[in-house]
From TrEMBL, chains A, B:
This is Thiamine-phosphate synthase. Mg(2+) binds at residues 75, 94. One of its GO terms (molecular function) is magnesium ion binding. Pathway: Cofactor biosynthesis; thiamine diphosphate biosynthesis; thiamine phosphate from 4-amino-2-methyl-5-diphosphomethylpyrimidine and 4-methyl-5-(2-phosphoethyl)-thiazole: step 1/1. It comes from the Bacteria. GO terms for biological process: thiamine biosynthetic process; thiamine diphosphate biosynthetic process. GO terms for cellular component: cytoplasm. Gene3D superfamilies: Aldolase class I. It comes from Paenibacillus mucilaginosus 3016. Condenses 4-methyl-5-(beta-hydroxyethyl)thiazole monophosphate (THZ-P) and 2-methyl-4-amino-5-hydroxymethyl pyrimidine pyrophosphate (HMP-PP) to form thiamine monophosphate (TMP). It catalyses: 4-methyl-5-(2-phosphooxyethyl)-thiazole + 4-amino-2-methyl-5-(diphosphooxymethyl)pyrimidine + H(+) = thiamine phosphate + diphosphate; 2-(2-carboxy-4-methylthiazol-5-yl)ethyl phosphate + 4-amino-2-methyl-5-(diphosphooxymethyl)pyrimidine + 2 H(+) = thiamine phosphate + CO2 + diphosphate; 2-[(2R,5Z)-2-carboxy-4-methylthiazol-5(2H)-ylidene]ethyl phosphate + 4-amino-2-methyl-5-(diphosphooxymethyl)pyrimidine + 2 H(+) = thiamine phosphate + CO2 + diphosphate. Residues 12-194 form the Thiamine phosphate synthase/TenI domain. Binds 1 Mg(2+) ion per subunit. It is an enzyme of class 2 (transferase).
Length: 214, 214
C-alpha cells in the first residue's frame, strides 16, 4: 500500500547512472546534488558492466545514507539487495512490484513507472509505494521512454488516488517543473537536469526552490 | 570452487526462453527435451516482460524438479530467487559470480560465460562452478554473442584446469557436437538445436547419444 510518508521524500528525485560527467565521477555529482537539496536518489545504469556498477553504487548508497535520504535501484532487485538499497524502482517490463517486495521485504520502497492510466492501475494493485509518471516532456536521457505525454495523466492519477505519492519524470528541469507540481505531483524526477550540468549543486537547489515555492 | 560433481550434469544443457515455438509452449518443449535426455535447463529470456517470464519459469522449474535435473536462470539472481532456481548463469557484463553466490547461497550452481582465456581466469577466480565457453560456431539465437571462436579455447581451458566443468555453446547441434566434446567439454549447450525443432525430444536424444558415444 502506498504511504503518504513518502510525500516529502519525493520532491527532488535524482536518477543517475555511474558514468559521471566531464571531470566529475557519479559519486561527486550525487554529493553535490544532495548538498543542493535532492531528496531521493535512484541508480539507473543500463550501460555499464555490473562489476563496475557495484562499487560505484556502494559509494552512492553511502552518500545517501550519510545524508539520511533514500537510495533505490532501478529494475534489478538483486542489485538492490547487494547494494543494501532502500528499495527498487520498476518499469512495466520489470519485476512486478509485489514480487520485488517479496525479495526486498515489507519496508522496502517500491516505485513503479506508469505512462497510462491502465499502467497506474496495475502498479497500485501491485502495491506500489509511489509512481513515476511520464515521460512528461520529450527526453533524450532515456532512449526507450516513448512519446511525451504532458501533465494530464498526473492530474488524472491525482484525482483518482488523492494520497498516492507520485513524481513526474521525463525532460523536466527548473524551467518547466512548476506545471508538473501544479498538476498534483509531489515532486520531479530528473536525470540530465542535474547530472549533466556544470554545477549540479545549484541545479538541484533550483529544483528544490521550485518545489518549495509551489 | 568448481565441482567435478557437475560433470555428468552438463552433458545436454538446454537454454530456453519462454516464447515457445509453433504450436508448443516453452514448457511443452522443455518436457519433451527432458524426456529426450536433457541434463540441465537454463532459462534465458531477454524479450518477454518479467510478469510473463515468472509463471512460465515456475512451470519449467517444476518440470526440472520432477525430473531431478538442475534449473538455472540467466543473468538475474532476483529472478533465480523468485523462481527458486538451483543457480544462475552469468555473462561477463552481469553480476560477478561471487556476488551472485552471496545472494543465492553456497550450494547454488553459478555458471559463467567465457569467450577468452582472460574471461575464463576471471570466472575461475570468482568461484564459478562451471564455464559456458563460446560461441563455438556461428549462431543466430543470441544476437550479442560475437564472432565464432571454434574449439581451441575449450582445449586450452581444459589443459589449464583439468577438472573444471565446462560446456561449449553457440551454433552447436547433433552434427557438429562431437568436436566440442573431443576438445574437452563435458557437454554442449544448445538453444535452437532443441527449442526450434519439430521434434525436441528426438533432437535432445540425438545430442545425448553424441555425448554418450564420445
Amino acid at each position: 500500500m502506498y504511504r503518504s510518508s513518502l510525500h516529502d521524500t519525493l520532491s527532488v528525485y535524482l536518477v543517475t547512472d555511474t558514468a559521471g560527467y566531464e571531470h566529475r565521477s557519479a559519486a561527486e555529482i550525487v554529493r553535490a546534488a544532495v548538498a543542493g537539496g535532492v531528496t531521493l536518489v535512484q541508480l539507473r545504469d543500463k550501460q555499464a558492466q555490473l562489476r563496475d556498477v557495484l562499487p560505484a553504487g556502494r559509494e552512492i548508497r553511502e552518500l545517501c545514507r550519510s545524508a539520511g535520504i533514500p537510495f533505490v535501484v532501478n529494475d534489478r532487485a538483486d542489485l538492490a539487495l547487494l547494494l543494501e538499497a532502500d528499495g527498487v524502482h520498476v518499469g512495466q517490463d520489470d519485476l512486478p512490484a509485489q514480487e520485488a517486495r517479496r525479495l526486498l521485504g515489507p519496508d522496502a520502497i517500491i516505485g513503479v513507472s506508469a505512462g497510462t492510466m491502465e499502467e497506474a492501475e496495475w502498479a497500485v494493485a501491485q502495491g506500489a509505494d509511489y509512481l513515476g509518471v511520464g515521460p512528461v516532456y520529450a527526453t533524450a536521457s532515456k532512449k526507450d521512454a516513448g512519446e511525451a505525454i504532458g501533465t494530464d495523466l498526473i492530474a488524472r492519477i491525482r484525482s483518482r488516488w488523492p494520497q498516492l505519492p507520485l513524481v513526474g519524470i521525463g525532460g523536466i528541469h527548473q524551467g518547466n517543473a512548476a506545471p508538473v507540481l501544479a498538476s498534483g505531483a509531489q515532486g520531479v524526477a530528473v536525470i540530465s537536469a542535474i547530472t549533466r550540468q556544470s554545477d549540479p549543486q545549484s541545479a538541484a537547489r533550483g529544483l528544490a526552490d521550485v518545489c518549495r515555492r509551489r
